[in-house]
Amino acid sequence: MNIHSKSNAPVLDSYWMPFTANRQFKAAPRLFTAAKGMHYTTDDGRRVLDGTAGLWCVNAGHGREQITRAVEHQLATLDYAPSFQMGHPIAFDFAERLAALAPGSQDNKLDRVFFTGSGSESVDTALKIAVAYQRAIGQGTRTRLIGRERGYHGVGFGGITVGGLVNNRRVFPQLPGADHLRHTHDLERNAFTRGQPEHGADLADDLERLVVLHGAETIAACIVEPVAGSTGVLLPPKGYLQRLRDICTKHGILLIFDEVITGFGRLGAPFAADYFGVTPDLVTTAKGLTNGAIPMGAVFASRTVHDALMNGPEAAIELFHGYTYSGHPAACAAGLATLDIYEQEGLLTRASRLESQWHEAIHSLAGLPKVIDIRTIGLVAGIELASRPDAAGTRAYEVFVKCFEKGLLIRVTGDIIALSPPLIVEEDQIGEIVSVLGDVLRQVS
Ligand code: PMP
């Protein structure tokens, strides 16, 4: 089938694409039909280097046979079992494996795992756990949720409420009572940083101000991405996350790290909580959990949070929450095989070994016209371009299209380019990413 030919146009009509300019896309579709290792193949047979691990999820690279075989075997053995009031061993096995990897110290490990179907579901689950926990410990007035400007926490009503993406919030109503910290992005003081920026730890004190404004007794939880990804790779200033942790502890507020992107090795440690040495009370994950092969998310909870609910006021079901696909057997099989690969190939720490080379390579793009900032950490980079007057986002979008034509997949958000290759990336492929991107940046500018 030639999807580009006009006679096949109806083929594109029925699928209402998510977060896509549908009309624009369907006028000039870009389609992948296969993937292996670091590369996609397009419908017209071109190879495209994956500079974004799909949508930050294919950490072990594409087409991993171990995962395929595990899923195939699981579907042939037990395709589905009810997730409520019934169990199946593989969900318990996967949770045990995850618990061993969970962030936190020996005496405070987040080793209680609630399965969901996506990052958005993980976020709304964590927010609900936080509110239910407060009620279980006799703090039922604590229902307020604190997020952060320029945070992205998926698309559920909870997630868009605590998120700070205006386009995500403009159209839809929000949960009542939420408030936001300021974001930590500071081009004036922190431009072109490698790793954590120097300035801005004091922005965590916004939480103290919100405590004064609203009263601690109204606040259930504060959620942040340790590194904000989807809104343009915004890094936490040195000391910022620890300060948030201290303020939360002082006021009985649960701290939630949204690690849907940073979880499973993106920064060079299993979780950003490990990388930054700060232990939250809840961690949300998805994406790299199953290498993107089967949709799945997981919330990691501390024992304190978990046990409070197990001993809480509800006589029967301790947390009135769950999904048909919580702990889906095929997803658990994919997840277990993914963890095997991560362990066998040392992928959860590989970014730490590549980090200095990554910094060097990406920062070599500094000085190109219109590049106003470059930020790198782990195997993530944000490259910010000056916006065209009255046409914000068009410059980066043009870079995205031209990179795709030249065989490189990048991701853009506004005028920020985000890079996050699979963790199997080789040094020469990092070179290729920088070389293609550099060529395109010179052209576009
Ligand atoms: N939280 C964060 C930090 C994310 O980056 C994302 C997705 N990019 C989500 C939540 C939502 O995940 P999903 O698209 O799987 O619902």
UniProtKB/TrEMBL annotation:
Source domain of life: Bacteria
UniProt GO molecular function: transaminase activity
CDD domains attached to this UniProt entry: OAT_like
InterPro entries linked: Aminotrans_3, Aminotrans_3_PPA_site, PyrdxlP-dep_Trfase, PyrdxlP-dep_Trfase_major, PyrdxlP-dep_Trfase_small
Any matching Pfam family: Aminotran_3
Gene3D superfamilies assigned to the protein according to its UniProt record, in alphabetical order: Aspartate Aminotransferase, domain 1, Type I PLP-dependent aspartate aminotransferase-like (Major domain)
UniProt keyword Thylakoid present: no
Keywords of the record: Aminotransferase, Pyridoxal phosphate, Transferase
Required cofactor(s): pyridoxal 5'-phosphate
Family from the record: Belongs to the class-III pyridoxal-phosphate-dependent aminotransferase family.
Name of the molecule in the record: Aspartate aminotransferase family protein
Provenance organism: Roseibium salinum
